[in-house]
Amino acid sequence: FGNPLTWSICLERYLAKLSSVGSISEEETCEKLKGLIQRQVQMCKRNLEVMDSVRRGAQLAIEECQFQFRSRRWNCSTLDALPVFGKVVTQGTREAAFVYAISSAGVAFAVTRACSSGELDKCGCDRTVHGGSAQGFQWSGCSDNIAYGVAFSQSFVDVRERSKGASSNRALMNLHNNEAGRKAILNNMRVECKCHGVSGSCEFKTCWKAMPPFRKVGNVLKEKFDGATEVEQSEIGSTKVLVPKNSQFKPHTDEDLVYLDSSPDFCDHDLKNGVLGTSGRQCNKTSKAIDGCELMCCGRGFHTDEVEVVERCSCKFHWCCFVKCKQCHRVVEMHTCR
Questions:
Q1: What is the spatial distance between Cα 125 and Cα 121, in angstroms, rounded to a whole number?
Q2: Alpha helices in the chain (DSSP H)
Q3: Is 316 helix (H, G, I), strand (E, B) or coil?
Q4: pLDDT tens, position by position, 87-146
Q5: Which of 210, 289, 297, 315 could pair covalently with 325 via S-S, beta carbons 3.0-4.6 A apart?
């Protein structure tokens, strides 16, 4: 299957350039995204108004990945000199599984949000949600059109794997994790309501369906990362499928993340493979978890420095209506890996 790069990496390789333009509004821009396969370029040209949302979704995915992995050896670092995340995601690791899932979720989320906010001519609010509900409230307002966002994500994100025939173990892994990312949104949709009545009473309610915050999506997928299933390819009749490598484990669901290869330890600097190592990373001296100095620094030890931090303190509320604080200085110990 070669060395496939996710659509998000291809987009984000040019993110700074595209951001400086402000929007993706010319068909020529689609051609400049050289990492995309031809069918993605064609989709880009046919859906120019949607591509800004795709770009925002890619950025959302990177920011959420970096938040979720901020205290781990691999912290979702991006490198200007290499494709985003280096070669980490070209291997079938847990980290690759998370990146594919969060990227797929990012584009579904951003496109859906654009639909609801009226930015796109091709879609709007979900009009299938209307009338009365069994719970006694009235469906009204603008329900998020998650069906459109998910469908676009499937068409644009999955086409790379499907164009080469989704039969290799890596293609099957990518497609599974793409779908798991979208499921993290679909399975966490919520109902938001507004009360109507005299003097703040709630004589009746109007409600609509809304996506969860993207942080919630990231939290769900991080939990799936922690419990990801190692898989291998098998055949059921003429169909190739992924099954747990350890037959003692229960089969994974559509919501779970799966991976093929063990991850490197991410301890040492390896720019060729996009691994920055942990030298210079801040660690927690008292923690026994992965953010603790013992694990984060891979046994190399750590430096301790005293640094002065400035904080807001002695805050008081003044009528009306502002909060006034003092600035306090204190010295704290900072620990960084050797």
A1: 11
A2: 7-13, 15-21, 27-32, 38-46, 48-68, 94-116, 146-157, 159-163, 169-186, 214-226, 293-296
A3: strand
A4: 677 889 999 999 999 999 999 999 999 999 999 999 999 988 777 777 767 788 899 999
A5: 315
Given the DSSP bridges, would you call strands 282-283 and 204-210 parallel, antiparallel or unpaired? unpaired
* Residue given tokens 């990177």 in the structure block: 62
218 φ, ψ to 5°?
-60, -40
- In sequence order, the 6+-apart residues with CB closer than 8 A to the CB of 70 are none
Q: Which CATH number fits domain 290-337: 3.50.50.60, 3.30.70.100, 3.10.310.50, 3.30.2460.20?
A: 3.30.2460.20
Ranges in the chain annotated CATH 3.30.2460.20: 290-337
Look up residue 227 and give its amino acid: G
Instruction: Report the predicted TM-score, pTM, of the whole model to 2 decimal places.
Output: 0.85
